[in-house]
Design a protein that fits this description.
Blueprint (H helix, E strand, L loop, with lengths): L2 E3 L2 H8 L6 E6 L5 H13 L2 E6 L9 H6 L4 H10 L4 E3 L3 H4 L18 H4 L3 H16 L3 E5 L3 H13 L5 E5 L19 H6 L2 H8 L3 H10 L3 E8 L2 E8 L2 E8 L1
Parallel strand pairs: 1-4, 2-3, 2-5, 3-4, 5-6
Antiparallel strand pairs: 7-8, 8-9
Helix pairs in contact: 7-8, 10-11
Amino acid sequence: MTVVLRSPQELRSWRKQQKGSVGFVPTMGALHSGHEELLKQARRNNDVVVLSIFVNPTQFNDPKDLEKYPKTWDADLAMAEANKVDAIFYPRYDEMYPDSYRYKVTENSYSNLLDGAHRPGHFDGVLSVVMKLFNVVAPTRAYFGEKDFQQMTLIQGMVESFFMDLEVVPVPTVREEDGLAKSSRNVRLTSTERMQAPAIYKAITESQTADEAAERLTAQGFIVDYVTDVGTRRFVAARLGDVRLIDNVQI
């Protein structure tokens, strides 16, 4: 039976009663098979599994994007129960931000590149809420998908910089059969856009250079925010209609 906890106080009280290792999967809900892979790994490697569902307003630089973010509580709960999640942390905004976001976590280098360059304040919101969640859940391990590779890297850096006592576990991107990276935003694509969307993966894997991939996507009707090679990975963010999609691959 999966217990649902609504406040940090409830979760901390419950957490004190748990024994053994705790695997944590932080999400904004609208769960899909990519999230399910995180839950499965957490279940395999830990005595206790905690899932959080919180659509975090501070990481949305576009209020319309926040309004449109899908909410699928019944399906999320069913997935949690099917994967033997012990507890869901499902807090309200005022419980997570009693200070109205006066205090925040800021990284001053990598967070200004890629998505950070196009979404001002986004990673401040991500890092701030993840630190809050880590402090409340006190996990042994936390699981993050490599689709959000920049986010995952920043969280790993935060954990190291603040001497936080947990392991950040990367999980490879889960894809549809046509290559499209699983994302909660995919449900907002029209049927025509859904047919176009796999071109992102094809472009970044088949093109010799990032510029070539960007040109391919632009020619196919995408509005490209960036295609950039950083180290041994190629990153992309592009829009179809009003849906912004991101991906990255090893090169």
